[in-house]
Amino acid sequence: MEFEYECGNFASSTGKQVSFVRVTNLSDVVKKSVNQLNESGFFVEKSNIPKNLLWVLLMGDKGRKSTKLLLQFLNCKEQHSIHTARLLAIFEGDKDNHQCIQKVLVRYFKSHSSNCDANQSSSAMYSISEFWLSLGGDWEFIARLLGLTGPNGTFFCNFCHAQLKDLEKGKPRTPWLLQRGATA
């Protein structure tokens, strides 16, 4: 499956030159992928995913000098296969910080509407009427994507509003405000 890619670079906030390659049109990637996965019989109904729902995972990871951003289709036979994953972008030259991720991805979310009619084929066996986008990756990538500073920052958790001061020094456990039944 072929997609159109574009290349570019920008200066990060640290002054380093960041080079990237990314798909030109995210909607095109989703539409072509859905049609290809549909025709090849990869889409399956799963008990934990509502019918007619396309569930996509946006994930990333830094390895060596580059950060890769992928789109994975989750309601498929082989969810974590090369057959159901699409490379959206790759960049290198600086850390996978929030600013770099934002500059590479912002084009997708500014220029594309949320209405993605993926059912182009009239003979589609898998009809899609709803679209879910989930974020994935290791803890560090999700923190960077959300603009969090990391494990030593004031707001260190990707899932709640616990602060570092809420943890007792030397006692790594759930902060009191997150324990079951605790009220603030």
Key terms:
alpha+beta; 184 residues; six-stranded mixed beta sheet; 6 strands
Please provide a written account of the structure:
This protein has 184 residues and is an alpha+beta fold. Helices cover 20% and strands 27% of the residues. It folds into 2 domains: 5-147, no CATH class; 151-184, no CATH class. Strands 1-2-5-4-3-6 form a 6-stranded mixed beta sheet. A hairpin with a 5-residue loop joins strand 1 and strand 2. It starts with a strand and ends in a 38-residue tail after the last helix. The model is unreliable at 111-123 (pLDDT under 50).
Short summary:
The chain has 184 residues and is an alpha+beta fold. Helices cover 20% and strands 27% of the residues.
Using the alpha-carbon principal axes, give the shape: globular
Helicity, as a percent range = 10-25%
Rounded radius of gyration (Å): 19 Å
Task: Provide the β-strand percentage band.
Answer: 25-35%
SSE arrangement, N to C: EEHEEEHEH
Extended strand count: 6
Quaternary state, please?
single chain
Q: Poorly predicted ranges (pLDDT <50, ≥5 residues)?
A: 111-123
Largest β sheet strand count, sense and barrel closure: 6 strands, mixed
Total of helices? 3
Give the overall pLDDT as a whole number: 77
| SS content category | alpha+beta
**Neighbour order of strands in the largest sheet:** 1-2-5-4-3-6
* Spatial gap, N to C terminus: 52 Å
Q: Please give the domain count.
A: 2
